[in-house]
Amino acid sequence: MNVPFLDLKAHHDPIKAEVMAAIEEVIDKNAFAGGPYVEKFESEFASYCQTEHCIGVGSGTDALWLALLALGIGPGDEVITVPVTFIATAEAISFTGAKPIFIDIEEQTYNMDPTKLESAITPRTKAIIPVHLFGQMANMDPILEIANKHEIPVIEDAAQAHGAEYNGKRAGSMGRLGCFSFYPGKNLGAFGEAGAVVTEDEELSKKIRTLRDHGQAKKYYHDVIGWNGRMDGIQAVILSIKLRRLEKATEARRRNATIYDHLLKIDSRIVTPHQGPNRRHVYHIYSILVSERDLTIEKMKEEGISCGIHYPLPLHKQKPYKQDEGSFPVSEKCSAKFLSLPMFPELSQSQIKSVAATLRNCLSEESAVNNTARQKELNL
Ligand SMILES: Cc1ncc(COP(=O)(O)O)c(C=O)c1O
């Protein structure tokens, strides 16, 4: 059976007529850059995230960069984050002139390891960016406790975690600022590029609003040097339509993950995702760990099943952020074994069964040896 990694057409077909009518409305009202549809979405998304303010911007990368700029971060500063993330997290830091400082991830959740945080703090540390990787929130309580003790603001990179929860609190609502991406493949995806920052802090929200619009609070009166980081009206109106269906889609992802778990946990060659206590994982990506990952992906492809790797190299092994091999052992170990299986709300039970059966057929017997050892390590 052919199974795509992502099926955006299946996701969009049921809302196509509604989307086309909404786009027509934006065209008729000339509300293209910013404007009433962006404001409407901002207010809806703020309330979805349990925050007071939401500022729509051009992308998730813009969201992170503008959040850092609003906190006054620049050359000479350090920002602590993880090497297992999409490169945008580090790029946003670098583009303020500050330096990303990496710390390792937890072996079970693949998120920032809070036990590594305090020793990485220096007098130059001006922010901490935990990334809610794959749709699961990082262990925010200990992270916030350390951050508060040192009076360092936390920016959540929630680009992959729309609607994820930690002790009932929504992604984006726990740090000083939360940053989201609405890249088309995300759990809440636009029909192009878009992003948002959410916050409880009115001062910061005003700063970001000004920065995203050329430093102007009033047209052509510029208070600071800003940028064009606005969300466009067409994306906003589409995001409003999709936001109304997000909870149902998230529950479908969670149901699909449970079926995968059930079919794969029994196989000692596979490590399935671990949902931490009191978390709501929203499974933007369903990533397992397997030995001989690249060979397995090739074999799956031959059987018609598309998989992904998020991400093949941790950032400290990428050219712009090169550090010594072995600097972050957990990140390196996991990155070598990550394999993302097809995951989207419309995935059918028979597709999931076919993916699971094909995967188990594609894995060699030898890979059992390595992974049994790992599962014991993880106490799974
Ligand atoms: C963890 C993370 N941070 C930031 C981004 C950047 O978002 P965008 O692609 O909308 O700029 C992404 C997007 O893939 C992401 O996954």
Oligomer: single chain
- Terminal-residue CA separation: 31 Å
The CATH class of the largest domain is: Alpha Beta
Strand arrangement within the widest β-sheet reads: 1-9-8-5
CATH superfamily of the largest domain: Type I PLP-dependent aspartate aminotransferase-like (Major domain)
Number of helices: 13
Q: What does this molecule look like?
A:
38% of the residues lie in helices and 13% in strands. It is of the alpha/beta class. The protein folds into two domains: 8-243, Aspartate Aminotransferase, domain 2, CATH 3.40.640; 246-378, Aspartate Aminotransferase, domain 1, CATH 3.90.1150. A four-stranded mixed sheet has the order 1-9-8-5, sandwiched between helices. The protein has a three-stranded parallel sheet with strand order 3-2-4, with helices on one face. A three-stranded antiparallel sheet has the order 7-6-12, with no helix packed on it. α2 runs antiparallel to α8, α3 runs parallel beside α8 and α9 packs parallel to α12 (349-362). It is globular. The mean pLDDT is 96. The chain binds pyridoxal-5'-phosphate. Pyridoxal-5'-phosphate is lined by residues 59-61, 85-86, 88-89, 131, 157, 159-160, 181, 183, 195.
